[in-house]
Amino acid sequence: RAIDAQARIVSSLANFLDPTTKTDIAVVGHGAVGTLWYCHLTGQDIDRRHDQPGQGHYYTIDLTTSKALHSWRPIDEIEQ
Question: What are phi and psi of 67, to 5 degrees?
Answer without folding.
Answer: -120, 145
